[in-house]
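Quick start: what a row looks like.
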Amino acid sequence: MTVTHHVRVHRSEENLAREDQLAWKIAEVAADPVAVDPGVVDMIINRVIDNAAVAAASLTRGPVTAARAQALDHPVSRNGHGSTVFGEPNETLSSPEWAAWANGVAVRELDYHDTFLAAEYSHPGDNIPPIVAVAQHVGADGAALVRGIATGYEIQMDLVRAISLHKHKIDHVAHLGPSAAAGIGTLLGLDEATIYQAVSQALHTTTATRQSRKGEISTWKAHAPAFAGKMAVESVDRAMRGQTSPSPIYEGEDGVIAWMLDGPDASYDVPLPAPGEPKRAILDSYTKEHSAEYQAQAWIDLARKLHGEHPELADPERVASIVLHTSHHTHYVIGSGANDPQKYDPAASRETLDHSIPYIFAVALQDGGWHHVDSYLPARAARADTVALWQKITTAEDAEWTRRYHSEDPDEKAFGGRVEITLADGSTITDEIAVADAHPLGARPFARADYIAKFRLLAEPVLAPEEIAKFLGLAERLPELTPAEVQELNIAARPGVLASVPAPKGLF
């Protein structure tokens, strides 16, 4: 059972009581000591493994190296154990907010972990690094960690169901700051009043524009969710010290809704669990088989299928045009509707290419699959036959696929579309796909074995076999872990891996 909270802008003279504010309603959910369902526990374990997998694969990449160096330049806070940093030995610790920062960048860098798309879009696994970092620092056990992660997923996904940010060019991590703060509040067993202040502060400090995902996409794309996690940790710290936050942060006449979202006449209906209702939102999210924007997942699978059925499509001389009929979001964010020339530029950054469905479909059609490194190599993007095919691919918004994208019925909600290929001889090939193969309703839904296989694939080049076994052994017992075992929930790179990349120097 859920309770729908009607949220609207209030003038200052209306004196909206804090108990009627969305931030307080979020705090009530976070403070509810309800047990976590077994199915949710299993999925949390899957996503902890998934996060570690994609973090392992990114350990030597520039943004991750820089964020890790920043974290290691900050010593452990005085009032706690400290938190581990992905790649480093367990004995190398940082302050929890900086560990959340470094680990958050590592998780997001390859854009390869879980997703949830509704009114807004999100990567709810971004909640895990700050919650784990705080758990390690304060000496929480695995059961508390599981409860905190369940809350983080629940709050972010409920906000994503109801409130669109991208429509107003606000970056989607504005839903992550409040959710991570709420998850930390659950982890620590804080009261509603403290969590309320932390949620309000986290939202206030994590609203930014979507320029980070427009045009030539910068390395900040990986840092943005890590920044939200870091701000969540700091917001909880301030709230625990008795400090207050802008209020009402959502509903105020100078608040987020009135000036950043739908304006002073706006209203939203936000679904949240009723008191005593388990937090099950994580079960509605889905992970990625391929390292690319989620809306590209199904298209990669369709291209892989077409590669096997029609190998001639790999030759640009045989193809006149390819049109991907898809949802509004896919067309305008990662398709030709974005009007970003960079999406067709062979010299574009990896961050830009993973937001270019014309590029992704071209490579997957030629290669019959997708690789998290090889498919983005500059030499791969610059290959003449790929460039020729790539330039022939466009997207078009289709009303029915847009409707299905926004459907609340999980059986018809879709993130794919229909492809129309016109060959040079005038003949046509058409096909369609609704959801990715790895989606719960897809051809091959991801299960525990798939998460472990993904972890091994990405971790084996950089982690020793015993490190892989140790991490999996801990993760699969997550709700039973002692505080000492939670502090070992880390992935340490093989000797020499991190030394192979320079640690950039900065201010700290």
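That is the whole record. The mean pLDDT is 96. The two ends are 49 Å apart (CA to CA).
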